[in-house]
C-alpha cells in the first residue's frame, strides 16, 4: 500500500485507543519501523521513542537477542494453550520470575495485558477469602488517582476522573483513600503527608476490615494518574496495616516493574512483600503481550481442592502463556542480567536528573517528578500558585505535538509531559530528548502566555 493510502486508510478504518479521532485525523501518524531508540514513520521521518512505545520497550527496537529468541521459538511452536497443559518457555519464565520477585511470591498466573493481570489479581483476592470461608470479604481499597487499566474490574479500582467518570454506573464500589500527593499539598512535610494518608487507610481498615478483601495500589509511583511518587515509608506503612487488619496487599507493578524506577521492581525501594503482584509491559522488553499475576503459596493453597468444592480459579484467556511471548521474555531477562541493566538505569537516571535542572527554571514548569527513568514534567499556568492551565488549552497535548514536530514521541497525562525513555538510550540520546522537550515547552507555553 502506498504511504498516502496508508494514512488515508488509517483514518477510515482504525479507532485508536485513548485517542480523540478528530485529533488523529488532523495529525495522523503511521509508524513504519524502529531501530534502537528511534522510530520511523511512512515518510521516513525519525523520532526518539521518548515513551518507550507506551512505557514498555526497554532495550530499544530490533534488539538482536530478542528477535533471535522469537525466531528460535518459531522453529519449535508459536502458541499452545495453557489450559490444562504447560509449555517449556512458560515454565522456565515462571522460575525466573519467582526468583526475581519478592521472596513470598511463588506462583505465576499468566495473561496477556496489564489490565488482565489486574482483573486476575482482583478475582484471586476475592475468591481467596471465599474459598477460606470469609464470604463477607468482598471489597477493595484503592487510592485517589490510581490507575490499573481499562477493563471493568480495573476501572472499578481506578480513580482517574477523566478516564473513569463516564463508566461509573458500570463499576463496582470500592473504598477510596487519599493518595499522599506531595505537589499541591498544603502540608509540606513529606512525613506528615505520609502519616495522614496512612491514618486515612487505618480508619477504613479498622472500621470495615471484615468486609475488605484487599488494598490495591501501584508500586511507589502513580503512573497514569500523573507520575506522583509516594513519600518514603508510605508503601511500607500500607504493608504493615494490611497485615495488622488481615487484608491482602496487591501491588500493581505493570508500569513500574522491570527496572523502570531504578530497581527491578518498585517494591524493592521499601522491601515490601505484597501478597499479589501484577507485572506486564517491560516483561518482554516491549515485544509481545505477556503479563503475569504473582501470588503467595498461601493464596494458591486456598484454591487447591477437587472440583466438588468449586475452589478452582475459573479464569483464562486464549493466548495465556504464549510460547513466543514467554521465550522473548526469557531473552529479555538474560539481557537484564548480562548487561547489568538495573545499574545502567540508576546511572542514566542520575544523569537525567541533572540534565532536567535546566527545565526547572522555565516559567511554566511547575514540578518535575522522577523515580529512576519514570519521569513526569508538570506544566502550569502559574508557578507560584501552582495554578493549572485551563484544560481546554490542552497544553500537554500541544507540547507533545510540538515535540513530535521536533523529532520525539510521547503522550502527555493532562499537562504532565511523560518522559519514559528506553533504558538503551545513550547519554547523547537522553540529552537530545531533554533538549527537544525544553524547546517544545518553551515554544508552546510562550505563545500561551501571550494569548492568555
Ligand atoms: N496498571 C498500571 C499501573 C498501568 O500503568 C497500566 C497501563 N499503563 C495498566 C495496569 C494496564 O496495562 P495494559 O495497558 O497492558 O492493559
UniProtKB/TrEMBL annotation:
InterPro entries: Aminotrans_3, Aminotrans_3_PPA_site, BioA, PyrdxlP-dep_Trfase, PyrdxlP-dep_Trfase_major, PyrdxlP-dep_Trfase_small. Its EC number is 2.6.1.62. Keywords: Aminotransferase, Biotin biosynthesis, Cytoplasm, Pyridoxal phosphate, S-adenosyl-L-methionine, Transferase. It comes from the Bacteria. The modification N6-(pyridoxal phosphate)lysine is found at residue 281. Pathway: Cofactor biosynthesis; biotin biosynthesis; 7,8-diaminononanoate from 8-amino-7-oxononanoate (SAM route): step 1/1. It is found in: Cytoplasm. Substrate binds at residues 147, 281, 316, 411. Its main location: cytoplasm. Homodimer. Catalyzes the transfer of the alpha-amino group from S-adenosyl-L-methionine (SAM) to 7-keto-8-aminopelargonic acid (KAPA) to form 7,8-diaminopelargonic acid (DAPA). It is the only aminotransferase known to utilize SAM as an amino donor. This is Adenosylmethionine-8-amino-7-oxononanoate aminotransferase. The gene is bioA.
Amino acid at each position: 500500500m502506498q504511504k498516502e493510502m496508508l494514512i488515508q486508510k488509517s483514518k477510515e478504518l482504525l479507532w485508536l485507543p485513548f485517542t480523540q479521532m478528530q485529533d488523529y485525523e488532523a495529525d495522523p501518524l503511521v509508524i513504519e519501523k524502529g531501530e534502537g531508540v528511534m522510530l520511523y514513520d511512512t515518510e521516513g521521518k525519525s523520532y526518539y521513542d521518548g515513551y518507550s512505545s507506551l512505557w514498555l520497550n526497554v532495550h530499544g527496537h530490533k534488539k538482536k537477542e530478542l528477535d533471535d529468541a522469537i525466531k528460535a521459538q518459531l522453529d519449535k511452536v508459536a502458541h499452545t494453550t495453557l489450559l490444562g497443559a504447560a509449555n517449556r518457555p512458560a515454565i522456565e519464565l515462571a522460575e525466573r520470575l519467582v526468583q526475581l520477585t519478592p521472596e513470598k511470591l511463588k506462583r505465576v498466573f499468566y495473561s496477556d495485558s496489564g489490565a488482565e493481570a489486574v482483573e486476575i489479581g482482583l478475582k484471586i483476592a476475592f475468591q481467596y477469602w471465599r474459598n477460606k470461608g470469609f464470604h463477607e470479604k468482598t471489597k477493595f481499597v484503592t487510592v485517589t488517582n490510581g490507575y490499573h487499566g481499562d477493563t471493568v474490574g480495573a476501572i472499578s479500582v481506578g480513580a482517574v476522573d477523566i478516564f473513569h467518570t463516564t463508566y461509573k454506573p458500570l463499576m463496582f464500589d470500592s473504598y477510596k483513600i487519599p493518595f499522599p500527593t506531595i505537589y499541591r499539598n498544603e502540608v509540606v512535610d513529606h512525613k506528615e503527608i505520609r502519616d495522614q494518608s496512612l491514618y486515612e487507610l487505618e480508619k477504613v481498615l479498622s472500621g470495615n476490615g471484615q468486609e475488605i478483601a484487599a488494598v490495591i495500589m501501584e508500586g511507589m509511583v502513580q503512573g497514569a494518574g500523573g507520575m506522583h511518587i509516594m513519600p518514603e515509608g508510605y508503601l511500607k506503612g500500607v504493608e504493615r496495616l494490611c497485615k495488622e487488619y488481615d487484608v491482602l496487599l496487591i501491588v500493581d507493578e505493570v508500569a513500574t516493574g522491570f527496572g523502570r524506577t531504578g530497581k527491578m521492581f518498585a517494591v524493592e525501594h521499601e522491601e515490601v512483600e505484597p501478597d499479589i503482584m501484577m507485572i506486564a509491559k517491560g516483561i518482554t522488553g516491549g515485544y509481545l503481550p505477556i503479563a503475569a499475576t504473582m501470588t503467595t503459596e498461601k493464596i494458591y493453597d486456598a484454591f487447591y481442592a477437587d472440583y466438588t468444592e468449586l475452589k478452582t480459579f475459573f479464569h483464562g484467556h486464549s493466548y495465556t502463556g504464549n510460547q513466543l511471548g514467554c521465550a522473548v521474555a526469557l531473552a529479555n531477562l538474560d539481557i537484564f542480567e548480562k548487561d547489568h541493566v538495573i545499574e545502567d538505569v540508576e546511572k542514566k537516571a542520575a544523569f537525567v536528573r541533572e540534565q532536567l535542572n535546566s527545565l526547572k527554571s522555565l516559567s511554566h514548569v511547575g514540578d518535575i517528578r522522577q523515580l529512576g527513568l519514570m519521569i513526569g514534567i508538570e506544566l502550569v499556568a502559574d508557578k507560584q500558585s501552582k495554578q493549572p492551565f485551563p484544560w481546554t488549552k490542552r497544553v500537554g497535548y500541544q507540547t507533545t505535538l510540538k515535540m513530535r514536530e521536533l523529532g520525539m514521541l510521547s503522550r502527555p497525562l493532562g499537562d504532565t509531559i511523560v518522559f519514559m525513555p528506553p533504558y538503551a538510550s545513550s547519554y547523547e540520546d537522553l540529552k537530545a530528548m531533554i533538549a527537544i522537550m525544553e524547546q517544545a515547552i518553551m515554544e508552546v507555553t510562550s505563545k500561551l502566555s501571550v494569548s492568555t
